[in-house]
Amino acid sequence: MERTKPAVQGNSHLPFGDQQDAPYYGWDILSVKQFSLEDLTYIYAVAHELREIVARIGGFDLLKGKILANLFYEPSTRTSSSFTAAMERLGGSVIPINEVTYSSVSKGESLPDTVRTLECYADVIVLRHPKVGAAQEAADFARKPVINAGDGVGEHPTQALLDLFTIFEELGGVEGKTVTLLGDLKNGRTVHSLARLVSLYDVKINYVAPEILKMPPEIMQEIGARGVAQTEFEELDAVISETDVLYVTRVQKERFEDEAEYEQVRGQYVVDPALMKAAKEKMIVMHPLPRVGEISMELDSDPRAAYFRQMEYGLYTRMALLALVLGKA
Amino acid sequence: MERTKPAVQGNSHLPFGDQQDAPYYGWDILSVKQFSLEDLTYIYAVAHELREIVARIGGFDLLKGKILANLFYEPSTRTSSSFTAAMERLGGSVIPINEVTYSSVSKGESLPDTVRTLECYADVIVLRHPKVGAAQEAADFARKPVINAGDGVGEHPTQALLDLFTIFEELGGVEGKTVTLLGDLKNGRTVHSLARLVSLYDVKINYVAPEILKMPPEIMQEIGARGVAQTEFEELDAVISETDVLYVTRVQKERFEDEAEYEQVRGQYVVDPALMKAAKEKMIVMHPLPRVGEISMELDSDPRAAYFRQMEYGLYTRMALLALVLGKA
Amino acid sequence: MERTKPAVQGNSHLPFGDQQDAPYYGWDILSVKQFSLEDLTYIYAVAHELREIVARIGGFDLLKGKILANLFYEPSTRTSSSFTAAMERLGGSVIPINEVTYSSVSKGESLPDTVRTLECYADVIVLRHPKVGAAQEAADFARKPVINAGDGVGEHPTQALLDLFTIFEELGGVEGKTVTLLGDLKNGRTVHSLARLVSLYDVKINYVAPEILKMPPEIMQEIGARGVAQTEFEELDAVISETDVLYVTRVQKERFEDEAEYEQVRGQYVVDPALMKAAKEKMIVMHPLPRVGEISMELDSDPRAAYFRQMEYGLYTRMALLALVLGKA
Asked: Spelled out in words, what is the top-level CATH class assigned to the domain B158-308?
């Protein structure tokens, strides 16, 4: 397991009275691959505690005086808002940077220079970038912690972490559960990261996808090497009844050459109340959102529909990560 | 009078130690139609107190730990900045969302889904949207309070509330006053809402507009049914001397087919020092801004020019509304 | 020396318990020309103290309850982020206004009206505008302090102030130093302002530029009138060994009619480890950033490379200016 190096080790610019010996202090969050079982247990304990604090008093001043540079080279209202709220609920402040492309960068500034400028102002950098490897490049140059909020088709580790936290909070844990991933399993970084993460535990994974959008064999091999049972399906009906976690993703029209084929797949994979009759009473339906039809709105009032609660777990997960890398949890 | 339902009644997600029995706690602010005389009196008492606090100490921590999602599908620097400042002067934080169209929404996400995501992060949502009825739709789905900051040609209730608050603060009340509305009375949601709101009181209303931009008869009927005297004019000279509140709006070129007609109307309705010689010594000139020539800059130093103070009253009105719907006033 | 008038003298809207007799309270920051030696000494004493506070505890609540309107008619991530962080590290809040052109302004609102609206919400206005003189125009109409964050080819006083502060902090002072300005000295407002500012002290200035990008004679005359020694060069080699401060700027391709000439100039003026062998051991290399090749990345690890630290000094300089004009330092 490659663990990302502490980003600010021995850095004389960053004391601010932090607990420098706190676990995860100064960490970069770049990939789900950097997390061990112990890490996850620790992070989720913090996230759970933060959830309770938010429910009780809304927020508190743990990160007062700290500043997050929220650096988005691509727009993403959801992720950007989630990190903003996470920082603000902990009493910290945010520098919102959404229009990067119209600015310095369009004058030809490199990512390392932009990051080294922003860390002069901020204490932690959240980066969304269209290029695979951008977060690693930023972390290589930054003295302060970098959190990857999605780098192209690469990784989006905080999404995977919040997905798993959702399962923990909703079902009490992931051990022994059957996780069914549905939709475009070929192109979705979300499902790749989640599959990797749950395979640290004793789970069973089902993949339900049309032939052309199957889970890539190299990821299945990686997961199989950990002894996790994996089965592939083309129909959801076959597995809905045994599923504890149904993770739905969007199937994009652009992936299909034949529109008729797209329409057929799309129709097949809609999760609606009729389908849910075959599902367990205690299970959850998840989705990274936005959805555009693959889960019917009629399902929203079903207690098993966990996708909006999932957004809320994202808040607590990101609060935990910010607190940890800043040495405050 | 249809009063908007409490948005968060019995909602277990929202306690945070709020006074759940506080009046207006959890209310949506969607339309001026939802306010009774008693509501207005209460809101303006709070707004007046907040005005005094701001004058004395700038702000305080009434909404500390609370987060506002400022969701603007259309740009509006003025309204967006006003809500941001209102939240910040009360010690709260803001998630600014200005570029919605480039983001999730362009991926096809529905307004209800966007709103249900944002309320996972925030405590109250301010919504500006180009579509009539958008605020109501958002409120139907949201558990947390929604404040309408303008939905197309529909409503912009906080504008009307701040307009009336301006009259209260500047003239000591609206009872017995003569309110003259000037300009494009056909298309302006601002004057429609204000006319409705002042007609709750014993006032006299003058409408001054060119033939093609007259106040719509259905609104005049609605107001007439409350026993309010209304008179229509084409010339401002006829009524300036009896006017207590002159509310000026912009006449847009695009409304006219004949440019010569536009130029004539435009010239006729300019409020300048010459015209103001005929006005009372104690009266006010208001404008929702931005202006583009309908009030001459020479008038700015006239104490009766209340349009910039009007912006400031907007701050206190919005502070009051945020405090009220969050159960803190 | 023309000193900018106090912006809020006798203003009854602004008390908030401020120390109204504090030096610089209510000042506009419009031009480097408004600063005397005494002013600079005072400002840098405050900036230095703030630097130590940030190093020790990250920030504090000096400007709690105060609001900055960050009004950018042109995008500038660097400057905008720097002011945002400065305000937040002092416990204040920010109204970010980046998309002005798409908003009220595109409806034809004048700068004075926009500024008079924003000061209803905020306590201080930072303005970036493409038009020379825009900051002065804003200040003429505003009751609250205006800070010029760049008005076209006009001034960018806070950049010059932070540049000089960098020299003070890195070299212990500027008296007796040799300052070499390199690159496009004709069009760069940055080098014009810095040259003016250092000429208040006993310094020697070298200008290194290609023939067509030389320092304008009127600025050299202004500086010469203060008795400062100035020498012009076309080659950097001639002066690198005696230089205490090497201030590098970008040479833009667009300035040249002949591309071959551009390529030659560009190659000649690259600051790299080879060149730095001839430089003093104790000297600094500065750059306003962004750079695009005129300083090689290999130099970044050289302790004399001060350009990223320069960004950090910008934070402290802007914190000091905000605190001063708000009467809190």
From this structure: alpha beta
